[in-house]
TrEMBL record:
Residues 28-155 form the C-type lectin domain. SMART domains: CLECT (SM00034). PROSITE patterns: C_TYPE_LECTIN_1, C_TYPE_LECTIN_2. Keywords: Disulfide bond, Signal. PANTHER family: MANNOSE, PHOSPHOLIPASE, LECTIN RECEPTOR RELATED. It comes from Mytilus galloprovincialis. The keyword Signal applies. This is C-type lectin domain-containing protein. It comes from the Eukaryota. Residues 1-19 form the signal peptide.
Amino acid sequence: MELIATLTILGLFVVNAVCDCPNGYMRHDDSCYKLYASTKASWAEAFMYCQVFGSDLAIIETAREQNFVEGFLRREFKSGMSDGVWIGGTDSLVEGEWQWVKTGVSINQQEFTHWWPGEPNSSGNLGEDCMDLLHHENYNWNDERCDRQANFLCEKLAATGQQIIG
């Protein structure tokens, strides 16, 4: 009986150590995502907020990831949320040179992009240097003023390494 209890506890420890995401995050492939649906911030504040919790503003590199994020945001959307949700793209360093802030990878050079038709357009006098996903545009990519208050999506790598017990 004692052996069964020990094996059960050991099994639970290994399952928790090998997989899954922190509480409140949703796993997809090798990443964990969390939508801050009740917190609105500027892009820079959202960036820092994610960092404080050990993550980054989400980046989207493939159609598969875009499809996941769209479905996730549709399920989580609630009345009172901002239309746009911040993710980790910006052209604030060089106008028109979009990059993922977490990796420095050029979005312009990336095989996959998902801009809403006509975007990015840097509309307005203040420019639009930060990327969001607009609910009313089916979560396609949009450039937006960085000071706008919006909800945001954070991403972190899922725990994949096995813990050695002993």
